Amino acid sequence: MVSHNLLLTGIPRSGTTLTCSLLNRLPQVLALIEPMDMRALTAAGSEAERIRYITGYLAAIRQDALERGVAPAKLLVGDGTNTFATNTDGKRASSIQGDATVPHGKDLKEDFTLVVKHPNAFAALLPELVAHFRCVALVRNPLAVLASWNSLDHPLSRGHAPMAEAFDSNLAGRLRQEDDHLSRQLLLLDWYFSQFISRLPANQVLRYEDIIATSGRALSVIAEAADTLPAAADLRLQNQNVNHLYHDLEAIEKAADLLLADESNGCWQLYDQVAVHALKTALLE
């Protein structure tokens, strides 16, 4: 296991892009937003081939970062902390404008921390990844996740996560058996939480709310230097669980009721129903 490499997964809309933005404030951390060629990874036909591909990819990124001073980057609309932006019909669509190789602008040392984020692919592959790489997962209040998913122009709003399904045929089959998009969303939510809780130590499953509350210091499990983040004068993080973009109140109320009735959902291992009830009230006000 190469301790200076870390694979970042998480529930989509749980703050993984924000986390990369925060980590990139640190001088010896390079955090990349979904840079890997997923077609190449899906073409790998076995666990050994996938591990070999990821290992080689990380080595190539480190070499380019150290020798050429460059790294792959997603070109995002806005401040770089969100991969979705509001479109004309009020839904949020991808804000990714393309890929580029750009100067990283850091004086990196050989032992710099490389973080690569791929929420869905790494969530599905987590059972095989944990034996070879350091992995961390992000989660968020489950009702905030559902509210966010239903604000998107994206398969998640229909209860599908194509890249996760590409690597987990059992998940894909279970989702196909559900007719209702909210039922699929609850199944997905349970799948993410169960993947992370069953495969990772407790301190490697981070809550979005804790990252916000600590001004990013909770990310010290990824890079110890995250303890210095509050020193940044312009760092003002706000909890977005109550968000004006989550305006489909009918969907939010129905999702909340279904979630609260789903007592076996994996989310209850990290969140309690009091927090979901409170968020439901705040979102519907």
Tell me the layout of helices and strands:
Elements: E1 5-10, H1 16-23, E2 29-33, H2 38-43, H3 47-67, E3 70-76, E4 84-86, E5 92-94, E6 96-103, E7 113-117, H4 119-129, E8 134-139, H5 142-149, H6 162-167, H7 169-176, H8 181-199, E9 205-207, H9 208-213, H10 249-261, H11 273-284
Parallel strand pairs: 1-7, 1-8, 2-7, 8-9
Antiparallel strand pairs: 3-6, 4-5
Helix pairs in contact: 4-8, 5-10, 7-8, 10-11
Features:
285 residues, alpha/beta, Rossmann fold, five-stranded parallel β-sheet, 16% strand
Order of helices and strands: EHEHHEEEEEHEHHHHEHHH
Number of strands: 9
Major pleated sheet: 5 strands, parallel
Average pLDDT rating: 91
The low-pLDDT segments are: none
Category from helices, strands and their pairing: alpha/beta
Distance between the termini: 48 Å
Oligomer: single chain
Helix content: 40-55%
CATH topology: Rossmann fold
Going across the major beta sheet, what is the strand order?
Answer: 2-7-1-8-9
Number of domains: 1
Tally of separate helices: 11
Q: Give the C-level CATH assignment.
A: Alpha Beta
What overall form do the CA principal axes indicate?
A: globular
